[in-house]
Design brief:
This is SRR1-like domain-containing protein. With 260 residues, the chain is α/β, with parallel strands linked by helices. 40% of the residues lie in helices and 12% in strands. It has a single domain, classed as Rossmann fold, CATH 3.40.50. The chain has an eight-stranded mixed sheet, with helices on both faces. Helix 3 runs parallel beside helix 4.
């Protein structure tokens, strides 16, 4: 079975690859979404209560659970956990899902925050059920309001202020960060985690302005050399270009100091 069909494989680097027109369209849409999300700031006048946020979240969560994306991802997690030398995960960190009550009132921002949070929660729950061990859930989002934090508490998350979560990463941690800036990845991956879910090396190497010495590419290349990978199934571009990196237990866990 080829990698496109869901097989876990050793990460390989691909050079000289052309980008198909459809993929270019996806990348353009992703850049538009990122531009919108990058302008998000804490809402100075929150309008939603924690109960109202939870009601919307439950609707999005139901969409996530019946999606083909989640069905495919469950199969991949089952295969990954069946590997005898896989990582032992004791904590999971969700980076920058976005505010649940955005200041600009954007439905895209709100749905993206809830869908990523639903995906994170279900992935952790799946790993817990397969390992039989409790996994601590942590979330870090600078755009959260106090109501957002209260809602996260209802989901069983510990909310930490930036950059607190970065120092919590070790070889038993799952790091979940969708479409983050490379500098954020550099800080989060100063110590390589057990599992990383985010934009992979291949995605960064497609960008014209990426140079080998950019912060964050060092950790990416270390995972590229040591980890297995699986392409995270997409869902309406919300997870486009996302990769699951799965550490092999016993491989050297190198620490890459973040750039100044």
């Amino acid at each position: 079975m080829g990698q496109e069909e869901g097989e876990w494989s050793q990460v390989t680097r691909k050079r000289g690859r052309t980008v198909p027109e459809q993929q270019q369209q996806h990348q353009q849409q992703q850049l538009k979404d990122q531009a919108l999300l990058s302008g998000i700031h804490p809402n100075p006048k929150p309008e939603l209560t924690a109960a109202e946020i939870r009601k919307f979240h439950d609707q999005v969560d139901q969409e996530w659970r019946i999606s083909g994306c989640w069905q495919k991802l469950q199969e991949a997690l089952l295969e990954g956990c069946a590997t005898p030398d896989g990582p032992l995960i004791t904590a999971a960190i969700c980076l920058g899902p976005g505010p649940f009550d955005p200041a600009n009132g954007s439905l895209l921002v709100k749905r993206t925050a809830h869908m990523q949070t639903a995906a994170f929660w279900s992935i952790v729950a799946n790993l817990e059920s397969q390992s039989g061990r409790r996994i601590k859930r942590i979330v870090q989002e600078p755009g959260f309001t106090q109501v957002d934090k209260e809602f996260c508490g209802e989901l069983g998350f510990d909310v930490v202020d930036t950059p607190g979560a970065f120092t919590m990463v070790d070889s038993t941690t799952l790091v979940f960060g969708i479409h983050m800036e490379l500098q954020t990845y550099a800080e989060a991956l100063a110590t390589l985690p057990g599992i990383f879910i985010g934009s992979g090396l291949d995605e960064w190497e497609k960008l014209m302005n990426v140079t080998p010495d950019l912060p964050g590419l060092g950790p990416m290349r270390e995972m590229d050399a040591m980890y297995e990978k699986f392409a995270f199934p997409d869902l309406n571009y919300m997870f486009y270009g996302t990769t699951v990196y799965w550490r092999r237990r016993g491989c050297e866990n190198l620490a890459t100091p973040p750039a100044n």
